[in-house]
C-alpha cells in the first residue's frame, strides 16, 4: 500500500553524505532541488534568448513577459530608481517561483528521492527573508546614513502621537522577515499537506474495490481542483514575496515617505 503520510514528503534525506569534524555537511534533496531550480531558471532563460529576433517566438515572448512583469513590479512600488535592484528581485522571484513549481511534480527525477518543495521549509524562507532585510538595511544606511531612521517616522505625523507611531513602526520593521518567511513557508506547507491528505483518501478508498467509483469520486475531484489551485498559489506566493521585497527596498530608497 502506498505511503499516505502527509508529512513524509517534507523529510530531508542526504543525497551525497559528507561530514567534516563531526558536522554533517551532506548534499541533501533540498540542496539538490535548489541547484535544479537555479539550473532550470538559467537554462530556460538562456535558451529562450539564444535566438533573439525582432518578432519574438514563444520562448522569447515568455522571457520578455517575465522581464517586464518584474520590471513593472519594481517601478510601481519603488520607482524607476528601484530598477538598480532588478537583477536581485528578478533572481529572487524566479528562484522562489521555480522552487514552488518543482514541488508540484512529485515524481520529478531525483537521486534517492522524489519531488521536493524546498520553499516549504522555514529555514529556507527565513534565509531568503534575512537576505532581503540585510540588503534593505545595508543599502538604506549606505545611501541615507542616519537618515534611514526616517523609515520609523512617517512624514506628517503629529508630535503628540509620534512616540506611539515610532514604536509601531519599529515593531512592524522587526516583524518583516518573520511575516515574509512564514507566509511563503506556511502556504506551501499547508497546500501540499492538503493535497497529500486527499490523495491518501483515494488510496484508502481504493481498497473498497467495486465501491470506489462511488465513494472515490469526491476526493479525486478535490485533488484535481486543489492541484490547479496549488499551481496558482505557487505563482502568487512567488509574486507576493517579490512585491513585498520591492516595497521594503522602496523604504531603503525613500525612507520616511
Automatic annotation (TrEMBL):
Annotated GO CC locations: plasma membrane; proton-transporting ATP synthase complex
Main location: membrane
InterPro entries, per the entry: ATP_synth_F0_asu, ATP_synth_F0_asu_AS, ATP_synth_F0_asu_bact/mt, F0_ATP_A_sf
PROSITE patterns per UniProt: ATPASE_A
A Pfam family this chain is assigned to: ATP-synt_A
Transmembrane segments: 31-49, 85-108, 120-142, 154-174, 194-224, 231-250
Physiological role: Key component of the proton channel; it plays a direct role in the translocation of protons across the membrane.
Recorded family membership: Belongs to the ATPase A chain family.
NCBIfam families per record: ATP_synt_6_or_A, PRK05815.2-4
UniProt-listed HAMAP family: ATP_synth_a_bact (MF_01393)
Name by which UniProt lists this protein: ATP synthase subunit a
Source organism: Marinicauda salina
Amino acid at each position: 500500500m502506498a505511503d499516505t503520510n502527509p508529512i513524509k514528503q517534507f523529510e530531508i534525506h542526504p543525497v551525497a553524505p559528507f561530514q567534516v569534524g563531526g558536522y554533517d555537511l551532506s548534499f541533501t534533496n533540498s540542496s539538490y532541488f535548489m541547484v535544479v531550480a537555479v539550473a532550470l531558471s538559467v537554462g530556460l532563460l538562456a535558451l529562450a534568448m539564444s535566438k533573439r529576433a525582432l518578432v519574438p517566438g514563444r520562448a522569447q515572448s515568455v522571457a520578455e513577459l517575465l522581464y517586464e512583469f518584474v520590471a513593472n513590479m519594481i517601478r510601481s512600488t519603488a520607482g524607476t530608481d528601484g530598477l538598480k535592484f532588478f537583477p536581485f528581485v528578478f533572481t529572487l522571484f524566479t528562484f522562489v517561483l521555480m522552487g514552488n513549481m518543482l514541488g508540484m511534480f512529485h515524481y520529478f527525477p531525483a537521486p534517492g528521492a522524489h519531488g521536493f518543495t524546498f520553499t516549504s521549509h522555514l529555514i529556507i524562507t527565513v534565509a531568503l527573508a534575512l537576505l532581503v532585510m540585510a540588503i534593505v538595511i545595508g543599502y538604506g544606511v549606505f545611501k541615507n546614513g542616519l537618515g534611514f531612521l526616517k523609515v520609523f517616522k512617517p512624514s506628517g505625523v503629529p508630535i503628540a502621537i509620534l512616540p506611539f507611531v515610532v514604536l509601531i513602526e519599529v515593531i512592524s520593521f522587526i516583524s518583516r522577515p518573520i511575516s515574509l518567511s512564514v507566509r511563503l513557508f506556511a502556504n506551501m506547507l499547508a497546500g501540499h499537506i492538503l493535497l497529500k491528505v486527499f490523495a491518501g483518501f483515494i488510496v484508502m478508498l481504493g481498497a473498497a474495490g467495486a465501491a470506489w467509483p462511488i465513494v472515490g469520486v469526491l476526493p479525486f475531484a478535490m485533488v484535481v481542483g486543489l492541484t490547479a489551485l496549488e499551481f496558482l498559489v505557487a505563482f502568487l506566493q512567488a509574486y507576493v514575496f517579490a512585491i513585498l521585497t520591492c516595497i521594503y527596498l522602496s523604504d531603503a530608497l525613500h525612507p520616511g515617505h
